[in-house]
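Input record (one chain):
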Amino acid sequence: MAAKVGSNDLIQRKRSFCLLSQDDDLATTFVKAGWERKMRMRGADLVIFSGDSLVHPFMVGERVVDDDVSGYDIRKDRIEVKMFKALDPNIKKLGINRGAVLLNNLCGGNMFQKVDGHNTAVAHRIHTMLKDWERKSFFVVGRHTQAMIPHELGEVLAWANESTYRETETLKYTEAVDRRDTEVVYYWHNNTMCIQYEPTDSMPMAQEYCLHLVDNYLF
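The corresponding structure, as predicted from the sequence alone:
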């Protein structure tokens, strides 16, 4: 379900965003699209959660299934959880890559701690659920080893078919089951969009799709 068009004051002025991590490529994507960057959350129309560390499964009540815990940054998780909860519910939130998993968890979803087929520099194909989008599938780049399990309140807007192995603390899935990997999910009830891939200049269609979702669902 798409959100209503933004208010007149938003239409008349530049929309602004605050990016909570150091991601120059992502910031450039929005600046080139006409957005104004703010260095603080206060006054920003959109708050973006990103980064490339792993999200700790304590958020969904699980223990780490892998012996190697070097990729986790639990301090960052806790700080950003507090930031998310401190935001006015009407503020628009966008999660990219790691941020998508984090925000999906905070919206009531779950996560696969381990997933294959996505931690590669090779582009992979995703499939859109939007009937009016010009292409039903296109290529994206997204290097991640975790994946979202959306809550029933989430609206899945894109999926991939790449993984052959997915794991939580209690469950392991192989290629024998449904291999749809959630790439994009929208939570209308708290103005949150979760996008697992990276909207880089090298993939113009993927970048355009990200901006389209922000414009037409969050605003």
